[in-house]
Every structure is written in C-alpha cells, then in structure tokens.
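Let's study my pick:
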Amino acid sequence: MYKNLVARRACALAVTCLPFLFSPLVSAQTAPAVAPPLKVAFVYVAPLTEAGWVRQHEQGRLAVEAALGSRVQTRYVENVAEGADAERVIRDLARQGHQLIFTPSFGYMEPTLKVAREFPDVKFESITGYKTAPNVATANARYYQGRYLAGIAAGRLATQAGYVAGFPIPEVVQGINAFALGMRSVNPAATVRVVFLGEWFNPPRERDAAMTLMNQGAEVLAFHTGSTAVMTAAQERGRLAVAYHSDMSRFAPDAQIAAVTHRWGDYYTQRVKAVLEGRWASGTVWGGVKEGMIAVEGFGPKVPAAVRSEVLARQTDLAAGRLKVFAGGQAGVKDNAGRQVIAPGQSLSDADIQAMDWAVEGVVGSFRP
C-alpha cells in the first residue's frame, strides 16, 4: 500500500503519468456500444400444446432464438381469443416496447391493423391475413398443396372421407377442395363430407364431430382445427386420419397415414433479421412446398411403400412447378352442383384461389350461406 501511495503522489506532480491514470477511462469511452436486443412477440390463438397450429408457430419462435441468440428477446402470449381480446393483447405488447409482433391467426387481422395505426414505429406480421399497411406485412402458406398430396394417399386407402373444419373461409375451403381433388385423382368415386365447428380449438367438439363423421361411414378423416382430437378419435375407432400442422403419429400411431406439416422457422428468422438490419418492408408472402413452408411427411405403417413414393414424387412435381392443384386438365373441373369452375387446360390464378367459396365435385354440402 505504501508503494502505491508514493506512486500516486509522484504521478500527481508528473504530467507523464496522466496517460497511465486516465487510460481506463479513455478505453471505456471508445468501446463500441452493445445494441439492446430486438424485442419480438408472438400471439397465439389457442393454448400451446404438444402438436398443432400453435406448436408449429412456437417452433418458429424457437428457431428465431436459436438463429439470432442474444440479438433478440422473444416472448409469446397464448390462448388469446380473436376480436377484442386480441386487440388488447397486441396493443399491450406494443406498449411494452416490442418492435416486431407476429399475429398468426386469420381473426387477428383487423385487430392487428387497428393497433398498427396507433404504433407506426412498430412492425407487425399478420399471418394468414391479407390486408397490409406501411407497418403491417402479411404471410401465409399454400396449405392446399399439402392437402392435395395427402388426398392422394387417402384416396389410395379409402373412398369415404370426413373433414372437421373451423370456418368456411377461403383458406379452409381451398384445403377441403384440394383434398377432394387429390383423392379423386386416384379414386374417382371418393367423397368428402365436411362438418364446420365455428371455432378453431375445442377438443371435445372436434372429437364429437370426428365420431359423427365415422358413424356416417368415413373411413379416413382430415381436419382444419387446432388440436389432436380428430387423430385420437380415429386411433380409437381403428380408422385412418391425416394429421395437420404437426406430425401427430405419437397420438395416433396406427391411424396416421401422413402429416401435412407447417414450417415457419425460416420465414420468421428472415423477417426478424430484416428488422435487425434495417431492411424490413411491408409486403405479402404466399409460400408452399417450393419454399419449404409446407411438406407431407410422417407416413404411417398402413401406407404401402408404393403410395409413399407416389406422394413424394407429386410433392417434387409441385416444388418444380410441374403440377398445379387447381388445374382443369383435359376434362376441366366442376363444383358439386355440376357447374364448371375450371375450364379444360386452364388453371386458377392466385386471386381466384384466394377468393374460393365453392365446393368441388365430390364434396358433400355447401360452403355458402
């Protein structure tokens, strides 16, 4: 200690000691500042379960964290009802300083737009929405491509199908029609009977609808709802089913013939990186098999190898652009009232597909009021 005191007194009289005394301060002032992490939030329309719509978006959030590490800080809010509840939650997240907010549910579109007008400096991603704004981008996946492929597998194994669905919005209608077209491409006698629930997530009602369809003769089930209830019902009754959103073979190891899976990790990561790098811009993305956002996988034990190969070959054709789901072919396509909806040799535009409100031939019932 005595030597240190002597040194300090000596330095107080010597100008040459000043760099020594102040070098730590100079170093601290010139060190580059560490940017705070980007705060990113996700709003989920149903509870976070082991499989399903919400699980796939959660996998996307985790992919963002894995790819970007300390550059981001993410959080999610689950089981948020569409409408007023969604608006309240989205607004609260914006007030908390989240700079990018993902809202993956169709019914979140209007609440997202409303809150976005109040927070012009916050970026929003309306997943499955279709309305944009300067700070609101939209993205969706061509789920119908996976539905068509799954329909091929289902048509090779069954003739009567049942379909449990949430709402008759175009996204759902596309999937039902594509599934029917896939089945009928290999089994012209195939039919698809649909039950709409008027909600996305209600496992008891999903199960009841599945049981009703099987009681009416459905040999294979498909669904556009948020839980695994349809899969477990098929497993219980010894029937077949197509999983949706996630691979659900652990819940229906014998029933699952295939899974139409959604992959959001790459898209979410790229959008977050765009904000970090100052190049985010509003726009619309509609990706499918080609972009890696949709895949058919998880084939079950009751699917012959030849059928697997057939489905995977058609998946390759879709990715390469050699196959279009909503194409007229040589005979054209009719709706279930006998009206021609796709002319021979023609295919539907994206605008036509996005406005789809008719039921293709083979679907039992109507999507219109």
The radius of gyration is 27 Å. The chain has twelve helices and 15 strands.
